[in-house]
Amino acid sequence: MKHWQEFEQRHGDRIVRENFICDAEPLGLILVSGTDARDFLQNQISSDVGLIDESRLQLSSYSTPKGRMVCIFRIVQVTNGYLLLTVKSMVQPLLERLYRFIVRSDVKLADASDYFARFALASNVPEVLQNELLPREPGAVLQTDSMIAMQIEPLGDQRRFVVLCLNGTGAVELWRELASHLEVVAFKSWRLAEIRAGIPTIFPRTQEEFVLQMANLGVLGGVSFKKGCYPGQEIVARMQYLGKLKRRMFLAELDTDRLPQPGDELVVEGKQQADGSGMVVDAEFDAEGLCHCLYVAQIARAESASLQLLGQPETRIRNVDLPYPPPA
User: Fold this and answer.
1) Mean pLDDT, the chain, whole residue set
2) Which of 189, 219, 277, 300 has its CA at a distance of 20 to 30 angstroms from the CA of residue 37?
3) Separation CA 327–CA 307 (nearest Å)
4) DSSP strand E in 194-290: where?
5) Which residues contact 254 (CB under 8 A, 6 or more apart)?
């Protein structure tokens, strides 16, 4: 891995929307292994682990018994267990939660971030998409002895991939091959793409703030309503079958020079204190300085265009269409 760590060409400073490759060091990994790993995860997370194998991935989440999400991640089955892919800042909080429920199960948990070179890319270039080491369709995973490549949700005509390599030399070689057709950029480009794709991320400041339907995981395939119990399942099921969704996640554009942070409050226009109207999920600037933001808010208030950022009353929030149908 030293070869990868010393490889300077993986760093860029630009933010672009298309045909880029970036170092994904801010993403972290948890390895869940042991003979009881599958059953353990099935009883802890929102998706149906029984529906994936080494060629398919899932979006999933972990919640408290009150139904509030602690973390959102992508899960991949590997030879010796399962890998959970999330932001690095959430690896330890999620590990601490999962450790509580191992009891007598044959389950081992480990921070596997440092074992993999990690990079991400988005492209519509045929020479990239036809690379034999990249999977051909969204949701697919391609694995070799030393590499895991996953294709996640597309954004427009851009196919998006995350690549994990156990071998630093192999990572450099594949990077160079792909980067010959792409622009090397900052990780912010990937974060911007996730926001524009409407994919939520939980950060330390937003732990336990949202029920998964509020963050659109129901329409993103991040929950199974047919599987057995898991923490928060009763709350999730009640909202799905008996309740009416009053909050959901929106995508917006903002003209501001102060980047909103996850957990920042949204309030009704004119309010000077938090009033429970909404909260920022994630935000990032594009190359032109336009801020793209995911936020969860009361639907009626968000759709009436009456919200503003707390402390930024001059900033108007312009909702734009998500790239998928919003939850009903």
Assistant:
1) 94
2) 219
3) 20
4) 247-254, 265-268, 278-285
5) 260, 283, 290, 291, 292, 293, 309, 315, 316, 317, 318
Under CATH, what is the fold of the domain 2-196?
Answer: Gyrase A; domain 2 (3.30.1360)
What is the distance between the alpha carbons of residues 270 and 239, in angstroms, rounded to a whole number? 31
Rounded Cα distance, 12 and 250, in Å? 30
CATH 2.40.30.160 segments of the chain = 204-320
Q: Report the topology of domain 204-320.
A: Elongation Factor Tu (Ef-tu); domain 3 (2.40.30)
pLDDT in tens, 297-315: 999 999 987 899 998 888 8
pTM: 0.96
Both structure tokens of 66: 């009150």
Position 315 scores a pLDDT of 87
Instruction: Give the pLDDT band (50/70/90) at residue 1.
Output: low
